[in-house]
Amino acid sequence: MIRFAAVILVAVLAGCQTNEEYQARVNAGLDARLSAYNGATIADFIARTGMVPSSAYAVANGRVFVFQTEPVYMTLPATNVTPAVTRSAQCQVLVQTVPNGSGGTADNWKITGTQRSGACNNLPV
Q1: Separation in Å, CA 19 to CA 9, 25, 87
Q2: Is 72 in a helix, a strand, or coil?
Q3: Within a 10 A sphere around the Cβ of 85, how many other Cβ atoms?
Q4: Given 26, 63, 64, 84, which is the most exposed site by the fewest CB atoms within 10 A?
């Protein structure tokens, strides 16, 4: 009986993961899905994700498009010592592009890379 309980305990503990391990797995998946857009146009990115750039700025070899998700609000409950605290988190994705032909439309910017920051776990990519 003790052996059976030990085997069950080892099996349960082997299936556990830390928050850091979970987040690393989520980040790897997000990075892979975002890098799949390399070579696509901004128009393709917009059509597939439903996200629209909030701004863009010129860089030496192209343009960077800025995409932001809606903010997510988290509230820590009040305790006897501290008041309730609400904070917001938002995901920002910077999409680096190079010109793909002449013209200024979304079809004329080819994606070469992405960077993300913030609360991106639910990014629609």
Answers
A1: 20, 10, 20
A2: strand
A3: 10
A4: 84
Quick check: helix, strand or coil at residue 117?
Answer: strand
Instruction: Evaluate whether 87 touches 73 at the Cβ level (below 8 Å).
Output: yes
Which pair of tokens denotes residue 69?
């998700």
Sheet holding 62-68, edge to edge: 55-59, 62-68, 91-99, 109-118
CA 116/CA 44 separation, integer angstroms: 18
Helix (H, G, I), strand (E, B), or coil: what is residue 68? strand
Give per-residue pLDDT as tens, 65-94.
999 999 988 898 999 999 999 999 999 999
| Amino acid in the structure at residue 104 | G
pTM of the model: 0.77
Which residue stretches of the chain are H helix?
2-15, 19-35, 42-49
Q: How many residues does the chain have?
A: 125
Cβ neighbours of 58 (radius 10 Å)? 8
CA atoms within 13 A on the CB side of 110: 9
